[in-house]
Amino acid sequence: MKIINRYVLKEHVGPFVFALSALTSLLLLQYIARKFGDLVGRGLSWQVIGEFFLLSIPFTVAMTLPMAVLVAVLYAFSRLAAENEVTALKAGGISARSLMKPALFAATGLAIFMLWFNDQLLPRANHELAALHRRVRNLVQARPRGIVEADLWDLAHLDLCGPAALTGRELAMSLARVLHA
Q1: What H or E segment, with its residue span, contains residue 154?
Q2: Do 158 and 132 fall into the same domain?
Q3: What is the Cα gyration radius of the chain?
Q4: Domain limits at 155?
Q5: What tens digit of pLDDT does each residue of 73-107 get?
Q6: Is the dihedral of CA 95, 99, 100, 101 positive or negative?
Q7: Do 62 and 78 share a domain, yes or no?
Q8: pLDDT digit string, tens, across residues 64-74
């Protein structure tokens, strides 16, 4: 491999890694913020919550990798042009086509990897995530947040029985009395 090819590829690696990690982190944080309330406080173990977020990473990477490639190519070639390196390379007898070859070969390899990733890994992760989501939803529906998970309820703000701390069973009986009265 020529020194120039390595140099062009090296100019792409830094922006690619940065863009991939930044975009993936942003989209993952947005997903976590949306799902956090549904998972935490439901009596789920931290392993289940961690598995839920780990299984969402492949979809996020599949969405952010093309954006990261775009950012890396734009940044690398813009920097090369801004510092007149493209002009110097052309003056040295290197064509624009040969300057783009390493980026095109790397993009072809990345496209082949993403073809495998989207065909093999992503459907498995999405299937596992959907199965985990169904298990969590069934578990949450079987144990509603307000009655089963809380050992004590403070009904002072409801003013049903006055200020009291009740267990789930006592709460159900008190509500039944109020509704039937």
Answers
A1: strand 153-154
A2: no
A3: 28
A4: 151-181
A5: 999 999 999 999 999 989 999 998 999 999 999 99
A6: positive
A7: yes
A8: 999 999 999 99
